[in-house]
Every structure is written in C-alpha cells, then in structure tokens.
Amino acid sequence: MTSIIQCHDVGLHFANEQKPVLANINVQVQAGEFVSIIGKSGSGKTTLLKMIGGLLQPSTGDIHVLGRRISEPIEECTYVFQKPVLLEWRTVLENVLVPIEVKRRLKQADKEQAKAIIQTVGLAGHEDKYPHELSGGMMSRVTLARALLTQPKILLMDEPFAALDAMTKDQLQLELMQLSSQFSTTIVFITHDITEAVYLSDRVLLLGGQPAEVAHEYTIPFSKLRPKELKFNPSFTGIVKEIYETIETVGASSR
Questions:
Q1: Which residues does 251 contact at the CB level (< 8 Å), separation at least 6?
Q2: How high does pLDDT run on average in the chain?
Q3: What is the residue extent of each domain of the chain?
Q4: Is the pLDDT of residue 251 over 60?
Q5: How far apart are the first and last CA of the chain?
Q6: What does the pLDDT look like over 172-206, one tens digit per residue?
Q7: What is the pTM assigned to this prediction?
Q8: Do 181 and 224 form a contact (C-beta atoms < 8 A)?
Q9: Ramachandran area for residue 166 (φ above 0: left; ψ -120 to 50: alpha; else beta)
Q10: What contacts 95, CB < 8 A, 6 or more positions away?
Q11: What one-character DSSP code corresponds to residue 185?
Q12: How far apart are CA 142 and CA 88, in angstroms?
C-alpha cells in the first residue's frame, strides 16, 4: 500500500505557550486505512488533525498529503467537525449539496447522486426535512453524506459521534465502517472512546507526554468489516484493556 499521509518530525508551539503542544510526530497513513488517534484531553489530537487538514501549520517538520506538502486545505481531503454544522434554513438534501454549490452550478445529476448517498446513510424519505426536525444521529448522517458526496480520498473526523447516545453511536460506527470500505476512503479519526477506536480502526495511535508524541501504536488484528458482537470477544476486550492501562501511565500535556 501507498502512504498518502506522511508527518515528518512534526511539532507545534503556540506563541503564548511555554512548551510545545506536539513534538517529533512521525506518522504514515496508507491508502484505504482507518487510523484512530486517542489520548487524554489536551494531548493535541485535534491539533494534529487540523495540521493534517491544512487548517494549522506546524512549527517544525512537515506534512505531505497525496505527495504534496500541506500549507492549506486541499480538495481531496474533507474535515468532519465534532458537531454537525448544518444550515437551519436548508433541507437535508440542500445541506448535502452545499459542497457542490460552493464550487459550481448544480446539475440534476448532482441531486440524484446526493439522494443516492442520503439513502446509503439511512436517511431515505427525509430529504425534505429541516435540521430542527432531525435527531442527533440523523444530523450526523447528514454530515457524513455531505462529506461523501465529493468522494474525498481522505476523511478527517474529529469525534463525530461523541454527543450521541450509545445505541445510535453503535449503529453509526457500523455504518461508517461499511461506508469507508464501500468508498475506499482513508480515514483519520479522533476519539476519546477506546472501544470505538479499536472497533473501527486498522491502527490506533496513542498521543501522550509533555509535549505530546506518539507514545504507542497498536495494530488491530481483525478483519476490515466487523460485527457488533466483536466488542464482547475476549481478544477485543484484551486490546481495549491494554490501551486503557497504557493511557493511565502516559503523561498528557497541559493542553
């Protein structure tokens, strides 16, 4: 497989901070891989994700995405924020179509493609509803459909399911896993939920230290598409326990 995200000795030092937030980050992500980044609050997870997405510039080192040194966001990479960002005056279909409208005039084919993706994420029949008529899980599905419409090579996801109830979260994890396989999308995923990270990922990276570095890396030895029942498998729970115990021993940065 080909590395499409490469972080070389990446660090970030904010001017108003005594210590760097991140230092010596060396990460490679392969095409089609699902990589989760975990760590205690303040360990720089979102900061690293924003640098990969071109929303922040590293103080040291460099980041290459799809062979290009990143200095700003690129079209092939879509960022999904922690909370669904939907326009209240637009329907589900209209919200999903926003990325296309920003680039050019809409075509009928765009609307048909958007409807197909809305169906794929489980929102068929809800195309004409407005955000205030949707549950939290449905809004997350709209955000996911909008991200997939442009068929990005890379999805950067910052705790997209953090605010959802357990049952909705479980269902969306399963759907995201299936969609990432269907669309062959490379995903870098931030979460505080260790079980979620192990369930979804090919690899899990643990950030820790002051400043934060990649303290540990875990390769998850399960097939790409995983049943919900895997979460109760002793091999699975053993990995979750190991990561949990390691986090407790790794110091987090003050940020």
A1: 208, 209, 210
A2: 89
A3: 85-151
A4: no
A5: 34
A6: 888 888 888 888 899 999 999 999 999 999 999 99
A7: 0.88
A8: yes
A9: alpha
A10: 86, 87, 131, 142, 146
A11: -
A12: 12
Nearest Cα to 166, choosing from 137, 201, 146? 137
How far apart are alpha carbons 101 and 73 in whole angstroms? Answer: 18
Here the tokens at position 20 are 């760097």
pLDDT band of 1, cuts 50, 70, 90: low
Which pLDDT tens digit goes with each residue over 119-173? Answer: 888 888 999 999 999 988 889 889 888 988 888 899 999 998 887 888 888 888 8
How far, in whole angstroms, is CA 38 from its chain's centroid? Answer: 11
Nearest to 65 by CA among 112, 127, 6: 6
> Is residue 154 classed as helix, strand or coil in its secondary structure?
strand
Is-contact 246 38, C-beta < 8 A?
A: no
Task: Provide the residue type at 133 as one letter.
Answer: E
* 34-38 sheet: strands from edge to edge: 77-80, 154-158, 186-190, 34-38, 203-208, 213-219
CA–CA gap between residue 223 and residue 202 (Å, rounded)? 9
What is the reported pLDDT for 255?
A: 37
